[in-house]
Amino acid sequence: MSDTAGDPPYSAPSVRRIELLDLARGLALFAMASYHFCWDLEFFGYLEPGTSTQGLLKAYARLIAGSFLFLAGVSLVLAHGWRLRPAAFLKRLALVAGAAAMISLATFLAIPGSFIHFGILHAIAASSLIGLAFLRLPWLATLAIGVICLILPAVYRNEAFNPVWLSWVGLFTVPPRSNDFVPLLPWLGPFLIGMGLTGLAVSRGWTERLASVGTGASRAALATRFCGRHSLAFYLVHQPVLIALVWTFSQINPPPAPDPLPGFISECRISCEASSSVAFCNQFCSCVTDELLSQNLFQPFVTGRITQESDTRIPAIAEQCTARFK
Q1: How would DSSP label each residue in 241-308?
Q2: Which residues belong to any copy of the Heparan-alpha-glucosaminide N-acetyltransferase catalytic domain (predicted)?
Q3: 32-69: pLDDT as tens digits
């Protein structure tokens, strides 16, 4: 009976490994490493502030995040079908969630003002838990809900989701400060779309055809597939290695002393434009910058010595500038 008649969309995962999936995951990892390398260069002062968070690099980062979540959705279906294997699922979940917690702790100790409280690994772990509810649904329903998840943050936001303990949902009006923020919405969308399309592929027998497709025996292909099969280890190791390389280079050839002002204004505008017009954000960010400078608060704020939570003057300035130009 067809899954469109109400049967589960797939009855069991394929027993054959799909090399194309390993290859795709490996390519996504290499793309992520290239983006993080640009971020590291910016962090150490070799690129202009805001370079990695706007324009083509911003779109590049979003495409990479979407591909990881899409592939995670694909993998959930291929690993379990509609017959969940609890031991295997919990083992994988513990690895991903444990790695996410470790990253949160490490970044909190290193950069407490913008630590990673809900990054890509957090999103994958949360999406995997939610994805369990979709394993038995028809693929079309899963696909449709995935599309809704993509659209929802664009049409509805609420200030109730602004606190950091709720911002991870993704319906905030003011995004939190974080060096890697991947909220559940809209990023649950590509995960469910991956699940839905894989459900369609399994129900039509396309996965067996994909499993029969070779990806070559060249060293590049073998290395890419190897990284794809060990994606979590690659994720955890690559950034410390890249940072160590850039740091070593900085000891030999130090970057010019950075001016924090352009970077602050750029980050302010990026955050503001998530919920307001470009014209308002230009005026608002100029106002906030001028007030911080006039009250000798700019340097303490950008260096993290004071925050919005620790110094009431910061939110007061934001409210004053909002009222002036709204």
Answers
A1: HHHHHHHHHHHHSPPPPP-HHHHHHHHHHHHHTTTS-HHHHHHHHHHHHHHHHHTT-HHHHHTTSS-T
A2: 17-240
A3: 999 999 999 988 889 887 788 888 999 999 999 999 99
Residue 72's pLDDT band (cuts 50, 70, 90): very high
Buried residues in 301-311 as b, exposed as e (16+ CB within 10 A): bbeeebeeeee
- The domain containing residue 28 runs over which residues? 3-252
Residues 235 and 319 in one domain: no
Sequence length of the chain is 326
Q: Is the pLDDT of residue 5 over 60?
A: no
Instruction: Single out the residue in 252, 276, 300 at which a domain terminates.
Output: 252
Number of domains in the chain: 2
Can you tell me which residue has the tokens 């490994």?
A: 17
Write out pLDDT tens, residues 97-117: 999 999 999 988 888 877 899
Judge contact between 270 and 53, C-beta under 8 A. Answer: yes
CB-based burial label for 146 (10 Å; 0-12, 13-18, 19+): buried
pTM beyond 0.70: yes
